[in-house]
């Protein structure tokens, strides 16, 4: 169970300095470093007003016979309770750290201050200062606050998270369970973790214990630089089991800079939907290795569409950066300057191609609705008798009829072959193909009738291919599925 509540973040298992003795690259004590860093770490307190009942709105009154004296008694009782009861507030605690002492900028997690009516920053000496939310980003779970005070502040710099190696020592300071200024130490357990928290997951994993109130707190290297923002834990019980995650500083730096300059993020946008390249997909495409990001669909009028990128292309390099796995592409694109023309290398129909793409802005595309499905086209009405079903790959396939369009909610403009049955235990079924799916392409060639599908399967077998690639539309959601051949 992944926990990312407003009261969670990472602290690292205490007691580890003893393990450092005898090692030349670790200190015998973290005391000097902790003393230097503690003043820069703050506690975050938020409050949110509980929703109030509208005038005249009462809690549910017990049911009594009409005209009963108890009915009027309970109405009067609840009315007095509502008038006398003060407005309640929900409160929560988190952590943060100062990055600019002169201007009072503080970094924390978005989920720490999300929906808060009031945010208070508490310094090491218990000074309370009301904070302004400069900007926040739910996709990376980061927020930037600003405080105004004559109180002297201490700031800490961002470090290079890419330089951190598995096994490196780290120090964390936070506000677990409201116990401000708690210092703990541990190591980096893993890098580049994807925990399905957002589209840009690239977490540092640590053996740290994460407890309530540490969210938004800094993780330091031994130079006193912030290399991570403690954010989440993996826990079946809600308590720490030693698997914690922090946002890497190299991701945070760019987001924080944008929040500071614009009050919001401004990310690069390519305009494609992508999926992972499995070994079966790589084989069916003739791709030498299962790497890159497979383009499942292209947004009409988006940067990719304008540059000629097509569904079925595999993006292997973007702006000179290798795309070894699917989830790297969104991060690389997001970090690219808006309106920059960049080279993109794609694998298309057995060979490498290069195109130039002018990067768009993700937020502008979201606001304009460009990320929605493309415009519908009017399709000619289906005529004639009901077509005969054909079986292939353990699937029963039929040409699309008006009845099937209605039954499976198939869009009027969509052309292809509809799956009406999936054989139990078939490879296609194991790959997730379902009745109602529409096969749009087979082997990256369009199909219109079941015979097209069986013909392309037979041709692939004759060519000695081990699998064949299907492009499937499921209620407007396009994805590629590689089906091994020679199996039902």
Automatic annotation (TrEMBL):
Region (Disordered): 47-66, 368-388
Example GO biological process: proteolysis
Enzyme superclass (EC): hydrolase
Binding site for substrate: 111, 141, 213-215
Main location class: periplasm
InterPro entries: PDZ, PDZ_6, PDZ_sf, Pept_S1C_Do, Peptidase_S1_PA, Peptidase_S1C
EC numbers for this chain: 3.4.21.107
SUPFAM superfamilies the record matches: PDZ domain-like (SSF50156), Trypsin-like serine proteases (SSF50494)
Pfam families referenced in this protein's UniProt entry, alphabetically: PDZ_2, PDZ_6, Trypsin_2
Subcellular location: Periplasm
Low complexity: bias regions: 48-59
Catalytic activity: Acts on substrates that are at least partially unfolded. The cleavage site P1 residue is normally between a pair of hydrophobic residues, such as Val-|-Val
Active site: 111 (charge relay system), 141 (charge relay system), 215 (charge relay system)
One example GO MF annotation: serine-type endopeptidase activity
Similarity comment text for this entry: Belongs to the peptidase S1C family.
Entry protein name: Probable periplasmic serine endoprotease DegP-like
Organism whose genome encodes this protein: Azospirillum thermophilum
């Amino acid at each position: 169970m992944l926990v990312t509540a407003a009261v969670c973040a990472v602290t690292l298992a205490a007691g580890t300095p003893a393990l450092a003795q005898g090692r030349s690259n670790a200190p015998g004590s973290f005391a000097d470093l902790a003393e230097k860093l503690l003043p820069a770490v703050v506690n975050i307190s938020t409050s949110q007003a509980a929703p109030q009942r509208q005038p005249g709105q009462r809690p549910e009154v017990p049911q009594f016979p009409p005209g009963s004296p108890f009915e009027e008694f309970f109405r009067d009782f609840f009315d007095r309770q509502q008038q006398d009861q003060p407005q309640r507030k929900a409160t929560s605690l988190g952590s943060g750290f100062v990055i600019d002492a002169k201007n009072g900028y503080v970094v924390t997690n978005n989920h720490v201050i999300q929906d808060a009516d009031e945010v208070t920053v508490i310094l090491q000496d218990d000074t309370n200062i009301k904070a302004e939310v400069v900007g926040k980003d739910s996709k990376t779970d980061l927020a930037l606050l600003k405080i105004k005070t004559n109180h002297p502040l201490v700031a800490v710099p961002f470090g290079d998270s890419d330089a951190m190696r598995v096994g490196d020592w780290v120090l964390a300071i936070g506000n677990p369970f409201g116990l401000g200024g708690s210092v703990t130490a541990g190591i980096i357990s893993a890098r580049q973790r994807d925990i399905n928290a957002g589209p840009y997951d690239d977490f540092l994993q640590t053996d740290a214990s994460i407890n309530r109130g540490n969210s938004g707190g800094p993780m330091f290297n031994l130079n006193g630089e912030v290399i991570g923002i403690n954010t989440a834990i993996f826990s079946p019980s809600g308590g720490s089991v030693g698997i914690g995650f922090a946002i890497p500083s190299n991701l945070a730096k760019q987001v924080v800079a944008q929040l500071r300059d614009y009050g919001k993020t401004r990310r690069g946008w390519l305009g494609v939907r992508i999926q992972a390249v499995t070994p079966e997909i790589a084989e069916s495409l003739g791709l030498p290795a299962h790497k890159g990001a497979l383009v499942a669909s292209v947004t009409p009028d988006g940067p990719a569409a304008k540059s000629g990128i097509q569904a079925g292309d595999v993006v292997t390099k973007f702006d000179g950066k290798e795309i070894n796995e699917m989830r790297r592409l969104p991060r690389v694109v997001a970090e690219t300057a808006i309106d920059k023309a960049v080279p993109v290398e794609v694998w298309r129909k057995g060979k490498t191609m290069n195109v130039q793409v002018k990067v768009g802005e993700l937020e502008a595309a979201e606001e304009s609705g460009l990320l929605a499905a493309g415009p519908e086209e009017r399709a000619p009405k289906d005529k004639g008798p009901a077509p005969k079903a054909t079986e292939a790959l353990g699937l029963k396939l039929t040409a699309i009829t008006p009845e099937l369009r209605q039954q499976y909610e198939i869009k009027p403009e969509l052309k292809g072959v509809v799956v009406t049955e999936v054989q139990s235990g078939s490879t296609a079924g194991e790959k997730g193909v379902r009745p109602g799916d529409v096969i749009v392409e087979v082997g990256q060639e369009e199909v219109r009738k079941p015979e097209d599908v069986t013909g392309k399967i037979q041709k692939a077998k004759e060519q000695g291919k081990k699998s064949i690639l299907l492009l499937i539309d499921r209620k407007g959601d396009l994805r590629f599925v590689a089906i091994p051949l020679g199996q039902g």
